[in-house]
């Protein structure tokens, strides 16, 4: 094995920087107190405590004092520039006995470790990482220097973006402005954002399952907490731990684990939760309602009393602070509370869900429905059976993305985003334990809880509409299928209160084939059925076996008997599903056949646009365009599927072949005589 020439590589690139008149700092030099603090307080590359010493450090500055730290790590052995995963990402956590192997042994990976430390400290929101390497010396010089550079920023959720063809000359003072412009162009693609979201959801789901497994395995906690109590326990620890402006983050050292009824860890959680809700400007009645749910849980002595010097509350909070809070405080919006609910559903049924109606809609379906209802930054979106607010989360994401894309002025854009969160979303949920999840979900989206109501939507919706200005033009719903008309009663009521726009409902399919009571026909009198989408039979992945469909309506235009409806057989959506209790969606929900493209295609078909793919066409029989009656009893795909019984030439050939096969076999067996 050749000896490393790491020191020579370091010297080589320091000379390059000197020749370009770029100020650089060595391992033990200090750029400023923030960077020193970040490197000192972060875990070392070996994973334990200890300082961090990048081989070379820079601090880029332009005329506007936009400062970008640069962390440079050197290696001097063949193949040690960078270690990538199979997906092409920089490997941070390695498999095997040493999870820090890549960070320790590869230049770019080590530089990324330092870069994350800088971002985590909080002073800087962007950093550059550079790996340098070389393997051969010729005449006392490195003959094969190599370099790889990445830009890492919080706006890209700390995902490294590679600078192709990077050269240190780009960092010269005379080139710095154009270099910064190049950095600003490095943003995540839609595909990268979706992959990032899936990865974070996977991490989040696994963390929640691990915590819940721990609670389930601990007989003391398992018998102490009911299902609802577990929901409130999770939510309270999360709200208490989230970073809030003007309030010092809750640290493990904040917990005293006192054995005192008035001064204990449960009181700390309740106090911090109240502070959190106040800082989020939640109304007093909402704060009181949330605290009334949380108090009976966090006042349980067995949760706050110390055992070997530590309470259960402190112990579980430690796990949440390490594994869950960093994911929730990223720039990626996740349906966190839905993950909690699904995790609990894996073990027990929700206590006040007597009719098994609490089934959460998958994110890719809520996103599809928000798209086909033409949601944009000016939409007013509501859901009268909102559950943990999955539909509103998807709609809000689309609305904010649209605002970011269309509004160029920063101040105007920020005002619009706040208006979307505070005024353009309305949700109603009757179950109190699910309602608290919705409140937390919308707060995690950056407020958004202003118009989240707990109550019976049959009563609360008209009352709210009378006392508030909410020009609803997008309605999204997955109703309880045990309600009248399989849930169509909610659709009928909501659409009747809208003057324009679109509504989409995910519902038991036979609600549209005669099982919708009077509501299906009533809906047709005032609204137009635009599309009917037959969904996969295993959509809810073991949590429900109901065959569902999405029905899309145009509001306030009566359906006419010659209106053409688009029917789509979406039973094959590109996902393969399993129902392993202890597995996450990485195992239970796998994209095995272009699922993202398939959902895009169905959205395009429903919107009347030209699809980029052709998985679903009239030619292959998966799309049918046909009329329906005005009775509301023929909305399903299969009712319009025409089966061609005309025999083809291939049918004739097969029949003849089958006959000859039988005839020959029968002759050989002596069962019949051959015709001469």
From TrEMBL:
GO MF annotation terms: DNA binding; endonuclease activity; N-methyltransferase activity; site-specific DNA-methyltransferase (adenine-specific) activity
InterPro entries (alphabetical): DNA_Adenine_Mtase (IPR051537), DNA_methylase_A-5 (IPR003356), SAM-dependent_MTases_sf (IPR029063)
- Output the Pfam families linked to this UniProt entry: N6_Mtase (PF02384)
List the EC numbers from the record. Answer: 2.1.1.72
Key word Methyltransferase present: yes
Query: Any idea where the DNA methylase adenine-specific domain is?
Result: 359-483, 499-604
- Record keywords: Amino-acid biosynthesis included? no
Q: Which GO terms describe its biological process?
A: DNA restriction-modification system; methylation
Coiled-coil-forming residues are: 183-210
Report the catalytic activity: a 2'-deoxyadenosine in DNA + S-adenosyl-L-methionine = an N(6)-methyl-2'-deoxyadenosine in DNA + S-adenosyl-L-homocysteine + H(+)
Gene3D superfamilies under this entry?
Answer: Vaccinia Virus protein VP39
Give UniProt keywords alphabetically: Coiled coil, Endonuclease, Hydrolase, Methyltransferase, Nuclease, Restriction system, S-adenosyl-L-methionine, Transferase
In which domain of life is the source organism classified?
A: Bacteria
Q: What is this protein called?
A: site-specific DNA-methyltransferase (adenine-specific)
User: What organism is listed for this UniProt entry?
Assistant: Alloscardovia macacae
């Amino acid at each position: 094995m050749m000896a490393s020439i790491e020191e020579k590589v370091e010297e080589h690139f320091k000379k390059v920087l000197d020749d370009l008149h770029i100020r650089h700092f060595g391992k033990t030099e200090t750029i400023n107190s923030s960077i020193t603090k970040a490197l000192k307080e972060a875990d070392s590359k070996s994973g334990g405590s200890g300082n961090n010493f990048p081989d070379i450090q820079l601090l880029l500055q332009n005329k506007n004092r936009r400062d970008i730290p640069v962390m440079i790590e050197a290696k001097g052995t063949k193949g040690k520039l960078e270690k990538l995963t199979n997906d092409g990402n920089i490997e941070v956590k390695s498999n095997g006995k040493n999870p820090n192997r890549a960070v320790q042994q590869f230049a770019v990976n080590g530089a990324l470790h330092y870069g994350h430390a800088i971002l985590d400290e909080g002073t800087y929101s962007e950093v550059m990482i550079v790996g340098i390497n070389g393997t051969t010396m010729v005449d006392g010089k490195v003959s094969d220097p190599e370099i790889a550079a990445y830009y890492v920023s919080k706006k890209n959720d700390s995902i490294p973006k590679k600078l192709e063809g990077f050269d240190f000359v780009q960092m010269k003072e005379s080139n710095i402005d154009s270099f910064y412009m190049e950095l600003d162009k490095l943003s995540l693609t839609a595909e990268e954002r979706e992959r990032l979201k899936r990865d974070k959801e996977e991490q989040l789901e696994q963390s929640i399952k691990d915590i819940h497994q721990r609670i389930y395995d601990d007989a003391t906690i398992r018998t102490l907490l009911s299902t609802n109590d577990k929901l409130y326990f999770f939510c309270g620890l999360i709200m208490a731990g989230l970073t809030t402006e003007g309030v010092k983050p809750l640290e493990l050292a904040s917990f005293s684990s006192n054995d005192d009824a008035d001064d204990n860890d449960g009181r700390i959680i309740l106090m911090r939760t109240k502070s959190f809700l106040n800082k989020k400007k939640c109304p007093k009645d909402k704060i009181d309602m949330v605290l009334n749910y949380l108090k009976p849980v966090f006042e349980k002595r067995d949760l706050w009393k110390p055992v070997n010097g530590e309470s259960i509350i402190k112990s579980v909070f430690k796990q949440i602070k390490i594994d869950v809070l960093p994911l929730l405080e990223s720039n990626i919006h996740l349906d966190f509370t839905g993950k909690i609910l699904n995790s609990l559903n894996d073990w027990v049924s929700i206590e006040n869900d007597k009719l098994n109606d609490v089934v959460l809609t998958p994110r890719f379906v809520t996103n599809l429905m928000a798209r086909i209802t033409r949601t944009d930054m000016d939409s007013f979106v509501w859901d009268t059976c909102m559950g943990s607010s999955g539909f509103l989360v998807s709609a809000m994401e689309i609305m904010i993305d649209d605002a970011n894309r269309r509004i160029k002025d920063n101040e105007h854009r920020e005002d619009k985003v706040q208006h979307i969160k505070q005024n353009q979303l309305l949700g109603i949920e009757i179950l109190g334990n699910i309602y608290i999840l919705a409140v937390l979900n919308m707060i995690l989206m950056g407020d958004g809880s202003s118009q989240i109501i707990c109550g019976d939507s049959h009563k609360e919706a008209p009352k709210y509409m009378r006392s508030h200005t909410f020009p609803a033009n997008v309605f999204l719903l997955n109703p309880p299928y045990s309600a009248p008309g399989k849930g169509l009663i909610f659709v009928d009521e909501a659409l009747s209160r809208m003057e324009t726009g679109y509504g989409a409902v995910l519902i038991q399919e036979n609600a549209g084939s005669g099982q919708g009571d009077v509501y299906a026909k009533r809906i047709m009198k005032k609204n137009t059925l635009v599309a009917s989408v037959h969904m996969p039979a295993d959509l809810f992945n073991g949590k429900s076996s109901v065959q569902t469909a999405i029905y899309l309506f145009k509001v306030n235009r009566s359906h006419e008997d010659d209106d053409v409806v688009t029917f789509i057989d979406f039973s094959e959506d590109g996902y393969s599903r399993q129902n392993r209790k202890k597995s996450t969606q990485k195992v239970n929900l796998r994209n095995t056949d272009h699922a993202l493209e398939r959902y895009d295609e169905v959205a395009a078909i429903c919107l009347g646009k030209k699809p980029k793919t052709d998985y679903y066409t009239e030619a292959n029989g998966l799309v049918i365009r046909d009329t329906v009656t005005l009775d509301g009893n023929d909305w399903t795909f299969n009712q319009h599927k025409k089966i061609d019984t005309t025999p083809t030439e291939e049918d004739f050939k097969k029949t003849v072949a089958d006959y000859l096969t039988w005839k020959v076999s029968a002759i050989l067996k002596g069962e019949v005589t051959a015709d001469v």
